[in-house]
Design a protein that fits this description.
This protein is α/β, with parallel strands linked by helices. The radius of gyration is 31 Å and the shape is globular. The chain starts with 8 loop residues before the first helix and ends with a strand.
């Protein structure tokens, strides 16, 4: 099919093709029996709208087939240790080398995972301290495991390697001491019957549960909370203290015998032993954490902390930024440290480990991660930082002849970080590897040697190969959605100018790398928070702002990380900060993030959005359903009365094949319908409930056009670009971007009212540029309805469509934590709390350069704002040129305020670019 579209790379990229991977008859998911030839030893980018089939081809077919072939060479026993992908639906794949996949992944929620463990730097340092550290006199040799807080040999015996100890206090378990025990003063006790049982037992023991807690004797309060005794006493349910005492004197028959448990014992035992994530989460809120008094937060045994290298123990060394660590290790690499060892072999060990360590560090520094520390836990990393850490590990591996399959490696990266990403990809390619990249970022697409464009649309309307060849050839493909954005053929959208209706002001926010900043969020407009990866955007918006608003609205700080060990979460490092104004204008908070909308196949689009409830009610109202007395619950595949008894409503059966991938087959009784025969006999306009779940959103919209509620819900889902998804498609099959749009659609279905504030975390992740335009339309609709929208985003089209921009920076890590603000009327405002004076004032098209800036035609002496070197944010209504390569090869004249002022000092020429530097936000140009 694609033989006539196979080109040699010499024609487009000037490089040798080095052979092709030939795919024939690929039918995975929505791929329509496609044939395609893909060059090896090249950077190949798979493009297309969201849901077109890019990932089905790159991961579901190519990577899955490469993994299958590799595992066939491994012993059957070893195969059982791998997570094996399903065998792909493809007739033939030729010329496919071994493959390594780097898929999107958010940080682990546990503090036990760190930068050092992700990059394997910690392993080297443990060996260094074990074999070449300076031991105290007469202390025996410690093996490398003794320097790991995650092993029994190294973990502090008191805190078990967490660095913190957890306990409860009277204040934490009794938050309101004006309440009585009957009024649940002991909030840590369980609710419902169990709590009532404990209160009845206290009555039998002679405690007055109707006296305010603060008026009870101190000795009695301590016993109730902290005793380990568990007396068993008769319980007289519903009796007060006098009635219980009278019953005891008369030796009446009790309701039952009850055993008492103190509040502290209940909390600790429940947390340690319960299998319910909800129960563990509930009791954890009554536990307080303090720094461990033995290891002082360093998580290791005293014996390990007594070993020094370069004058520091291993915990202190792990807190040194990677850039400084590279300078510290340089003399040891060259053998010029001046270190004198009694044993010559130690000198050799130090030099070899230091050289390997420095080589690994070099890749991390080249990717702009020198501000991180080995100790920094992965929950505090942005997705962009974590992506680059994993990529650095692969670059250092020096593999040859491997296919790297990457899923949107630019996700979470600021445009200024993209150049470092491209350098890393080029190093992998130069080493003799092939790179197959699923990507929407235009800078990465332009950098590709070969493009495979999949489409033309999503779902059933996609799955075709529109083009496979060098980049320039895509320009002539009429059906390509990517081409018009890649070659500047898309007209910029027009946006209405909006002014703030008020201000939500934050003061003194200090969290992670934010250092006491003041920020004002405008209300009633669309605000985008920008900044380089690791600058503090998520710390400010997704963490501090969301938690502060939830606390104000009385919402729980619920985590979606079900089953997560609460003790192993990263400690919240908020030292100060509060909302000082604007809360009176807000009534409701809605957070739309990229966390999964369901953890099992039973959760799907229809159930999550709530429209399935209306669908089931319609089926229950049919004449046949009423005759059989079927209620709405009969049409739920989660309830026994309606679901298939053989597959329990799953629709498929799984056959474990030990060392082979598990086989999933449609249920032989319901044939994948998920319901029993009687339920499937009920029809609505000729369709069963299983037929409805098999419809796409677009098909269902046409089917339920006469039902206002269902049609409205489906219409909103279509508007966010998800018309291709089946109603019953399992939530586990949705990408992060799709899951976020499902959440957004769920919010949009609700009645819009003024006073709502929406917070979105990188909603364009996984979205094609055409889908981003649809997203912007929906965000504008929320603002027009009177809501406030705050978006953490890197996509320049979203930034250009915003009414207000808050830029966090200027750099990442220690160089982060300051903010500048720009509004659409091109007036800037911002403060540097550390300096206690304005950073800059001028037009928002000038984010800053290395030249002095002007304020109203007057120089601003002594103040420079090199937040972004000669980088101009895209102005509203203008088209953004996002090509970093084009920016660096054809620099334009400086557009700073000084160049437009008669008294300005700027010569109009841009400052010389530093090696490896790149503009952080591309210069705007008129269409």
């Amino acid at each position: 099919m694609m033989d006539d579209k196979v080109y040699k790379l010499e024609q487009g990229a000037g490089k040798s093709a080095g052979g092709f991977v030939r795919v024939r008859g690929a039918r995975e998911h929505n791929l329509k029996n496609v044939d395609v030839d893909i060059p090896r030893d090249a950077l190949v980018v798979f493009t297309g709208v969201s849901g077109s089939g890019k990932s089905s081809l790159a991961f579901g077919t190519l990577y899955a087939e490469a993994q299958r072939r590799y595992l066939e060479s491994v012993s059957p026993y070893a195969r059982r240790l791998f997570h094996q992908m399903a065998v792909p639906e493809v007739e033939e794949v030729e010329g496919l080398p071994p493959a390594v996949a780097l898929q999107q992944q958010r940080g682990s929620p546990t503090t036990r995972s760190s930068v050092g463990s992700v990059t394997t730097l910690s392993n080297l340092f443990r060996m260094l301290y074990s074999r070449a550290g300076d031991y105290p006199k007469s202390q025996p040799l410690l093996y490398a495991e003794s320097f790991s807080p995650n092993s029994a040999e190294g973990a502090c015996p008191k805190c078990h390697g967490l660095g913190r100890v957890y306990d409860v206090t009277e204040r934490s378990m009794v938050p309101d001491d004006t309440l009585t025990i009957r009024e649940r003063a002991v909030a840590a006790w369980p609710t419902a019957w169990h709590g009532q049982n404990l209160r009845d037992i206290l009555t039998t023991l002679g405690y007055d549960i109707d006296t305010p807690w603060r008026e009870l004797p101190k000795k009695g309060r301590n016993w109730i909370l902290f005793t380990d005794e568990q007396p068993t006493v008769p319980v007289y349910a519903g009796y007060d203290l006098e009635e219980v005492q009278r019953a005891l004197r008369r030796k009446e028959e009790p309701s039952y015998q009850g055993t008492f448990t103190g509040a502290r014992r209940y909390v600790m035992e429940t947390f340690a032993n319960t299998t319910s994530a909800m129960m563990k989460k509930r009791v954890s809120q009554y536990m307080l954490s303090t720094e461990c008094s033995v290891c002082h937060g360093k998580r290791l045994k005293p014996e390990a902390l007594s070993v020094k290298f370069a004058g520091m123990d291993i915990a202190d060394m792990a807190r040194v930024p990677l850039k400084q660590l590279a300078a510290l290790m340089r003399p040891y690499c060259e053998g010029k440290s001046g270190r004198q060892d009694a044993h010559p072999e130690k000198t050799i060990i130090v030099q070899r480990i230091a050289q390997d360590f420095s080589a690994r560090l070099g890749v991390l520094l080249d990717l702009g991660l020198g501000y991180l520390t080995m100790e920094q836990s992965t929950p505090t990393l942005s997705p962009g930082e974590l992506q680059r850490l994993r990529l650095a590990t692969q670059v250092r591996s020096n593999l040859f002849g491997v296919v790297y399959v990457l899923d949107e490696p630019s996700a979470g990266l600021h445009p200024s970080d993209t150049e470092a990403l491209l350098r890393a990809l080029d190093r992998l390619k130069a080493a003799g590897n092939s790179l197959f990249v699923v990507e929407h970022e235009l800078d990465v697409v332009r950098h590709a040697d070969w493009i495979v464009d999949v489409g033309p649309d999503a779902g059933r309307r996609g799955g075709e190969i529109l083009y496979s060849g060098p980049t320039d050839g895509l320009k002539s493909v009429a059906g390509s959605r990517t081409a018009k954005y890649l070659f500047g053929q898309a007209a910029p959208p027009q946006h209405k100018q909006r002014s703030p209706q008020g201000w939500l002001k934050l003061s003194g926010v200090a969290r992670n790398n934010l250092r006491g900043i003041d920020v004002a969020f405008p209300l009633g407009v669309l605000t985008t928070v920008t900044g380089v990866s690791g600058s503090g955007k998520s710390s400010l918006v997704s963490q501090f702002l969301v938690e502060a608003l939830r606390g104000n609205f009385g919402q729980s700080h619920a985590s979606d990380e079900d089953g997560e060990d609460v003790l192993e979460r990263a400690p919240v490092e908020t030292s100060s900060g509060k909302i000082t104004a604007g809360l009176d204008r807000l009534k409701r908070l809605a957070v739309v993030d990229q966390k999964p909308i369901g953890r099992t196949p039973r959760s799907n689009l229809a159930t999550y959005t709530g429209l399935f409830d209306d669908v089931r009610k319609l089926f229950a109202q049919t004449k046949e359903a009423r005759r059989r007395r079927f209620d709405a619950g009969r049409f739920s595949f989660n309830l026994p009365k309606g679901r298939c008894p053989n597959c329990q409503g799953e629709g498929f059966v799984c056959v474990e094949l030990l060392f082979l991938p598990s086989v999933y087959a449609p249920c032989p009784e319901c044939h994948g319908a998920r319901y029993n025969r009687e339920t499937l006999q009920i029809k609505l306009n000729g369709k069963s409930i299983a037929d409805v779940l098999g419809m796409t959103v677009d098909e269902a919209h046409a089917f339920f056009v006469n039902d206002a509620n269902i049609a409205r819900s489906l219409d909103v889902i279509r508007q966010v670009g998800l018309g291709y998804i089946r109603l019953g498609q399992p939530a586990t099959e949705l990408s992060g971007g799709e899951a976020q749009r499902v959440k957004l659609a769920t919010e949009l279905q609700r009645a819009q009212r003024a006073g709502s504030i929406y917070v979105l975390d990188e909603p364009t992740t996984g979205l094609h540029l055409s889908d981003v335009e649809k997203l912007i339309v929906q965000l504008d609709g929320l603002v027009e309805a009177g809501s406030t929208v705050i978006v953490v985003e890197h996509d320049m089209s979203v930034v250009a469509a915003s009414d207000w921009v808050i830029d966090i920076g200027p750099g990442a890590g220690a160089r982060a934590g300051r903010s500048l603000q720009w509004d659409r009327r091109r007036r800037s405002r911002g403060t540097n709390r550390a300096a206690r004076r304005p950073i800059s004032r001028g037009r928002w098209t000038n984010i800053g350069c290395d030249h002095e800036q002007q304020v109203g035609g007057r120089r601003n002496p002594g103040r420079r704002a090199p937040l972004h070197r000669h980088a101009n944010i895209v102005a509203p209504g203008r088209r953004a040129d996002l090509s970093l390569a084009r920016m660096t090869t054809r620099p334009a004249a400086c557009a700073c305020a000084a160049s437009r002022s008669r008294r300005g000092r700027c010569s109009g020429a841009p400052p010389p670019a530093r090696a490896g530097s790149a503009p952080s936000i591309a210069r705007a140009r008129r269409p």
